[in-house]
Hints:
The strands form four sheets. Strands 3-4-5-8-11-13-14-15 form an eight-stranded antiparallel beta barrel. Strands 1-2 form a two-stranded antiparallel ribbon. A two-stranded antiparallel ribbon has the order 6-7. It is built from two helices and 15 strands. It is α+β, with helices and mostly antiparallel strands. The chain is elongated and about 95 Å long.
Amino acid sequence: MRKIIFYSVLVLLLCVHSMSAQETEEYKRKIEVLKELKNQIAAQEKEVLKIEVEDINKRLKSGDITKNNATILKEAAAKKRALNIENRLEIVDNRILLLERNKGNNLVLVEKDSLKPGTIGFSINVNGKPVFFNEDIKKKEVKYDQRTYSDFVFALGLNNAIMDGESLEDTPYKVGGSNFFELGWQWRTRVFKSTNFVRFNYGVSFQFNNLKPNNNQYFVVNNVNKTVLQDFDRDLVKSKFKMSNLVFPIHLEFGPSHYKKSEEKIRYHLKNKFRIGIGAYGGFNIGTRQKIKYMQDGERIKEKFKRNYNRSDFIYGLSAYTGFEGVLLYMKYDLNPIFKNADVKQNNISLGFRFDL
């Protein structure tokens, strides 16, 4: 029994000694890695400085900055990188001292900083995990002169049709019930280099133009293949004709803007500024639907029809807007007729508000 206890204690002491030796070797290895890191710091910062100087030279060559400004920027970049080297070396030296003082126990350090071009960050964990590794996270570059901006476009308002020989007041469509919606995305590009007064606006939009016929009528295609309004044989609760288009608008926009310039970037803003745009659009008819609701034997019946109704395949027209910042009065007019072979030519027209968000 005594021999068993003796050998058990001996094995335990050997294990403790082995673990202690391993821990000693581990923290010494971590110290060696940190010493190797010190040798990389200067090279890393110098490489980043080289890239910054090349960028400054490009801006000087393109005329974005003067020679005097370029010299000031280079001196500031060199001073920043020199201080980075000094501070980072001090940080690593302090880590080494902490490891030596604490024998590597319960010490966890994490830092993020620039290491190499196109990446940011590294982390050091001194607690049984990898001591040093790079995080390959792309560094977002700030464009000095941004000439193109983009917006989400939303528009809504009244819709109707202009018919040959008739005024808007005489059209067979409800003024308040007929409406339109538009959803799209646009890009706004400055035309001239040194002023933002003239811009090209271009993009893509979905248009939904709705017409509600008056006098208990709905659309049908008659026996000679013409789309006409016809009286329904029961009282209609609702009659709605929906036209969906995919269009590509382009506008020439005019108006002042705010100008902001710094050493890093040039920006133009339209906050609280007046804008006016004149242009056109072209695209395709992507769908036509008609929905009617009526009562029959005390029951509400709803029917939907998805047909072509002889609509024009290609959509093209003129549009314009005016207003302040992102709230604009908006009008569009289809030059193509709504129906290809109608007895009376009809062109869709819309008036409402547009919001550039």
